[in-house]
Amino acid sequence: MYVLKLESRGVACEVSVNDVPLASVTGSAASNRLAFAAPWITEPTGIMSARILPPPIPPERPVERSADAVLIALPPGAPAGEPEGEVIAEIRWSAPPGDETEVPPLQREARFSARPAPPMRWQRSRLSAGTPADAEALFAWIVGLQAAVERGDVAHFMRASEPGLRDLAEAMGLDPQEQIEELTELLTLNFPVTGLKPLVPDDLVYRPVAGGRLLAVTRKNGDPVIATVPDAARPYRYSLRAGMIDGQWWAF
Cβ(193)–Cβ(150) under 8 Å? Predict the structure, then answer.
């Protein structure tokens, strides 16, 4: 099992594993993210990359800036909580207050060796030609996904996500059906979600990732495509990677 851990202070950062963005932070304050990387490691060697960017809101005074990303191989049966295991790739960057020797944006990479996952469903994805009709169909599918979150339609959401969920479970050596049942139960407790930001076609950005097999869909400001407004009673953020298999869009 492989886990990506990202921490940053004073800078925004996005970290990818094998061209798949897995974790991002805004840099507005000290922050961190964890993400499972196993489904995206399908070869014995790979690359972890980090894009280090200026924060959206510059600090009022000079601060120490840093970004640390580590890819960790967890031992079998590792307990939940803070990941501890062998670090197979790391990217560390820092600058003391006022030091402008290196000014973001910056790109850093680290190569690693790992035990690859079995063949994953996302590898079968082939994106459409990108015609206006294709774009309209993709947007309509995303609107349907958000509507399912708003009305609490867990079944719709799970159907759209099932290939990616099975990929994740199998890459982690877990029983896919058990994981799907557990997530269904969890979503049932937390759906519906109110206060989601409206979807507007011109506000969405589609970035090819995973060697062009998938699209990372975000808003123009970098926020997840499905997210609550800032003053929502219960925050919700859903990062979407869309793939097409046999003419059907799926969430990965």
Answer: yes
